[in-house]
Amino acid sequence: MVSKKAIDFPHTRPYGAGLGYRRELSQEFTMHRKEIDVVEILADQWFGDGSLAHLREVAEEFPTVVHGVGMSLAGAGRVPEDYLAEIRKVTDICDAAYYSEHLAMTHVPGLDSGHLCPPVLNEESLRICTRNVDQVQSALGIPLALENITYSVSMGADHLAAASFFAELVKATGCFILLDVTNLYINAKNHSFAPLQYLDRLPTDRIVHIHLAGGVVTSTGKHIDSHSETISNDIWQLAAETAERCSPKSVIVERDQNFPDLHALVEEVARSRDIYFPQGC
Ligand SMILES: [Fe+2]
User: Fold this and answer.
1) N or C: which end of the chain has fewer CB within 10 A?
2) If one looks up domain 4-276 in CATH, what number appears?
């Protein structure tokens, strides 16, 4: 049973635009405090009393949104309660309005794939995803925002069917959507479909969070979501097109490799703010 709190979004005011938080760059983040509206905390990196004490300091300095990678919501197993208890400590410290996770399978009981795999697109899989999302929303007491992932191997010939599956899950659970614009762009390029047709199948009024990142293209022409490069003009263009269709609460620029001077990232944050919050936030 989904709680009422899990369906109603508790904050109406946008957080704005920001960056994924890097602990090793805490001083630089502080130096750029006025240019960063919000930071995204990767919950799985903050488990343990020592980390949580540091997290309290970050949450006092910045508005925070919380993201995770370990739930395997599309996996056959239930989400472990002890894992959810650790996540709850992080979301409580951050006073999180929602928790974002990937619509993906990373492990099933006894087997870890080591990376994000897309959900199987059938009714049994939808039932399992619904059960897991309901469980997490009840345990955390806040809504989930599910993220579209990139994939190399499709679960079917119709790539837009993945959007319909996503929409059914949102409808069944009352959860929200994290639209990763770069992931949408990459899937559309790698699998030859129109990104806005994918978006047309989603309940765009449920998009509360945006990810933007720069990727690479291999010698065979495959696009990779590497989070290692400057955001390309094609992705900025798609971002502008998505901004006409949704009103997110926060936009996060993701960068995990090939880390530049923070000033360069803050410029991308400013550009994303102009696109998604043209009236200010
Ligand atoms: Fe993302």
Assistant:
1) N
2) 3.20.20.150
